[in-house]
Each structure stands twice: as structure tokens, then as C-alpha cells.
Amino acid sequence: MSAVIEIDGLRKTFHTLRQGRRVAVDGFDLRVDAGQIHGFLGPNGSGKTTTLRALLGLVRADGGRMSMLGAPSPQRLPEVAGRVGAIVESPQFFGNFTARRTLRLLALAGGVPTGRVDEVLEQVGLRDRGDERVKGYSLGMKQRLAVASALLKSPELLILDEPANGLDPAGIREMRDLMRSLAEAGVTVLLSSHILAEIQLICDHVTIISHGRRVAAGPVDEVLAGFDQHEYAVRVAEPERAGELLRALGLSVTAQPDRLVVGGVDEPELITRTLGEQGVWVRELVPLRPDLESVFLELTGTGPHPTIPRQVDDSLLPEQTQKDAAIDLDARVGDSREVGA
Ligand SMILES: Nc1ncnc2c1ncn2[C@@H]1O[C@H](COP(=O)(O)OP(=O)(O)OP(=O)(O)O)[C@@H](O)[C@H]1O
Ligand SMILES: [Mg+2]
Q1: Is the C-beta atom of 48 inside 6 A of ligand 1?
Q2: Domains and CATH numbers, the chain
Q3: Could you give a GO molecular-function term held by this entry (predicted)?
Q4: Contact 23/57 with Cβ under 8 angstroms?
């Protein structure tokens, strides 16, 4: 599998008069292989946009190595720029222009045949609205136009910062279908988001960033499986008795108002058999799989607090995340420094 994006130990600190020094990216590693739809996930302010800007030569990194399509970035960026479509932060379009005119101008400026304009409008679902002025567009329609502009030059690599921002659930699904059809056509996609459901819906691989450092990376399923507690929800008529019987097997049992949550279960048959033998009949047995949301909240420490509003910088530094929670399931990511290592 060949790497389309490789970032190794990227560092970037901003210096501002008011706030002083702010470390935005702190030794971050990322590897995106050809054909992936790779999600770049992290809380607000964790360094996603800064990383993408550094990769694209829009901000100068303080350290680390980066490459795109085999070319070191930013030194040899011009050689591969024609094969990369990128949208970082919402692009500004002229409100008085229609989407079609906007794309025609961009096509002309980029030396792309203007016949592509209709194709990309169709791809992003704006075919019938392409002749309206952009100022009358909704946020989601502007996002679609931005994606259309990135697709104009039929890129091999598409980099999108928060592409699903402002999309409704149907729009997110359409975005997923679009990303999948692009991936099937051989395009590699890197998209950032702080919204987990989006990543889980759209992406096959994920890298999670917290405070400018990678805290997990790998195929979405494997990242989730790494957090599987082998838990099952069990519903029975006699929960107290069932709890005793299951605890006697050495399983962890937590009683909830309407069910028991049983952990450490390798074979669910053990539950039904043990309870059935004692005449306690199981009404429902449901595996509790971790979702990306709980994994993300655990890795970044961004779970809601019941009383105090969480501040953007309150997410965990990687050292503070549990050592065994820091995982790197994708061996191909290589031996770059890992959390706690
Ligand atoms: N130009 C800048 N000057 C000063 N600080 C900056 C600048 N750009 C980013 N930062 C700081 O760097 C940190 C990372 O910001 P960044 O925009 O990369 O986060 P992000 O992960 O993209 O967040 P979001 O999900 O909110 O888009 C933040 O603390 C931010 O305030
Ligand atoms: Mg951002």
C-alpha cells in the first residue's frame, strides 16, 4: 500500500501579541494510503486545520517532515499541486455570481475544460440550482459548491476541512456516497471533522488528534474494536437473581433500571445457558459495541461535564489519556512516536 500523505513529527507554534505562545501541533503523525477515505478527527482547536494548512504550504511548519503523492511538502508542492484538490476553511465566493459562473471562472483559471463544470455540479447535487446566485445559497449548498470547486481538476487526492459542516443528515449521506464513488474511481480522500457520526458514516480509516498529537489511528472498525469491552445488555424477569448467577461466573454485572450490563463476556451463550439452567429466562441479549463517539470522548477527554461548561482547551493532553487507551492499530502507520511511549 503506498502512502499518499505522510506526516512525521509535525510541529507548529503560533506566537501572538495578546495570547503569546500557542502550540497548535505538537509532533503529529499521519499516514493516508491510496484509496482510503480517511477521517481526521479531533475536538475544536486540536490542530486539524493547522495540520492541513501546513501540509498545503499555507502556513510554515516549525518542524517535522511531510509529503504528498511522494513529493516532500512544501518544497516540491508545485510538482503535485495539479493532482490535489483541497478546501481548507470555508472558501469565500462572490455572492453575486452563480455557482456555474464561479466554477467556469475557476476552470478557466485552472486550465480545466469548462465541460467539467456541469459534471461537478451534478456530482455534488447542485445541477438544478447552479444558475442561482451564491448569496442565496444555504450553508450546506455553499459547502457543496466548495467541494465542486475542489473536484474540478479531477484530483487524485482530495483534502477537505470540515466538508460536512452545515449539511443536513441527507446531505451527509450524499457526501458519503460522493466520497465512496470518488474512492471507487481511485481518489484518495482526507477529510477533517469534529463530528463523530460523520466520520463513522463516511470514512473507512481514522486518525484522532488531541492537543496537536495523534492519539489513535487505524481502520475505523479496528479503532472501535480496540475499545470493545465485550459487554452485553441482558433483560430478564428476575434481575437480582440473574445478577448473582452471572457474578458467580466471574463476570462484571452492573444493574441498570431496566437491564443488566454484563462485561467481560467472551461467549454470550454462557449467559443464556447459565440463566436458562436456573429457570431465569432471557428476554433480550444485546451486544454493546463501542461507537466512535464514546471512543473519541475517552481518548480526548471531551465528555460533557454535568455542571461546568467545558472550555475548548479542556480536552486531555495525550499523556493524560490512559496509557492503554492510546492505540495505534494500523501497523502501517509505522513506528512513529506514540502516546505515552
Ligand atoms: N493563525 C493563528 N494564530 C494564533 N493561533 C492560532 C492560529 N491558527 C490556529 N491557532 C491556534 O491553534 C490551535 C489549533 O487550531 P486549529 O484551527 O488547527 O484547530 P482545529 O482542530 O482545526 O479546530 P476546529 O475543529 O475548531 O476547526 C488553536 O488553539 C488555535 O487557537
Ligand atoms: Mg479547523
Answers
A1: yes
A2: 3-197 (3.40.50.300), 231-288 (3.30.70)
A3: ATP hydrolysis activity
A4: no
